[in-house]
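Problem: given the chain below (485 residues), write out its structure.
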Amino acid sequence: MRPTLRLLEDSLIERILDEARTIVGTLGVEIHNPGVLALLGDHGARIDAAGSRAFIPGALIDRALESAPSGFHLYDVLGQETHHFCGDRVHFTPGSAAITVLDGDTGEIRKPHTADYIKYVKVVSGLRHIEAQSTAFIPADVPSRVSDSYRLYLSLLYGEKPVVTGAFTIEAFAIMRDLQLAVRGSETALAEKPLTIFSCCPTSPIKWSDVTSQNVVDCARASIPVEFISMPLTGFMAPVTLVGSIIEHAAETLSGLVISQLANPGAPVLWGGSPAIFDVRYETTPMGAVETMMLDCANSEVGKFLGLPTQGYIQMSDAKQLDAQAGLESTMGATLAALSGINSVSGPGMLDFESCQSLEKLVVDHEVCAMTQRLLAGIEPRDDFPSLPLFEELLREKHLLIAKHTRKHLKAEILVPGPVIDRANHARWVEEGSLTLGARARAEVARLVAAYTPSRLADEAKAELTRRMAAEAKRYGMDRLPAQT
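Solution.
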């Protein structure tokens, strides 16, 4: 039996969706992209060009829901399937687009560089329960105009796992698509075996910028999956009630869904988001707040009710170090996300209000991911009936350490954690150096980097990736790419 969590009754979800549909039809959606406004207008939406607003009728929403797929697959650079986003399947992905990293050696939060990013890709390559990369942080040693494509380039060059990414400019999309084509070889092959997911973020309340709305259209036309990342802030840029925030999230995400499906019916999407409450005491957006986690889980319930695969930014902490707060917030988020069946859980490694990535936290979060996957496997009988012979053996032998039943089922039944988790008794812990969690995490990061095996992507494809990235960097004044050592 798979354990599950529900926060919303179906009747409440129906009322939430009714309100969201009324909002986008009556108040409209602000869209700062003339082409997207024209697309909506051509299909029956009422357009107020002067106010940059589209009023989306229910018929367009219904059509989008009919064409949007109920699931899709994701593939690595070698073309092997890694993900199936559907039902209650759960996949974990590192949090993304951080502007700083926590230096594991100094304990300082600082700007990241190319060497940090390559180290990150090598670490993720060895984390079995984190099935995708993300473009996790922004290297400070390249111009901002190429930072999106550069992160994707490094991920595809050094890692084999698919990538959750995104573009902060319209122009960046073309080179990011071309980098994927260098791996896949053709547009048809890329559409058949998607390699990335692009995050596309509306702006609260109920607005799409020129860049993000164009990203939705461009991704749809290239059959590149999109995760809609609506970010209502409860009590600030959304109603203070959780239900009110869920209504706003649904309105923003439905509008993105319509844009995507008008651009290319059947384009793959994730009903995702990164909502948060607003802490008026500090003017912050705590990602580790229980209400933030509840919003993520509830938003996923709405998406599942509509028959769509889902995403959520949830396994994160607002702590500034790898400490008890980081552990409790991230573990609770991952557990709630798994029980809710969020298909793509984004967040491992993230600290400081979604702005800092820590490799040490990432390897600890990997253990949390493993634990939640074991939890989802549930409890089931494994040759336990009849139990009398097993207990007769226990009474006769005084233990079951080498019993046939133990040897048969031990690995499937009991999750053995990696070296980050300490399960030794005190005497052995002291004998082995009295290592703290931080020290064990640093050692695990070093082990994973040392054990890294270069990507098996063909050398010709790697060379083409570098050629295209170097040409793009030259457009923005870089004579050469940063050293990759």
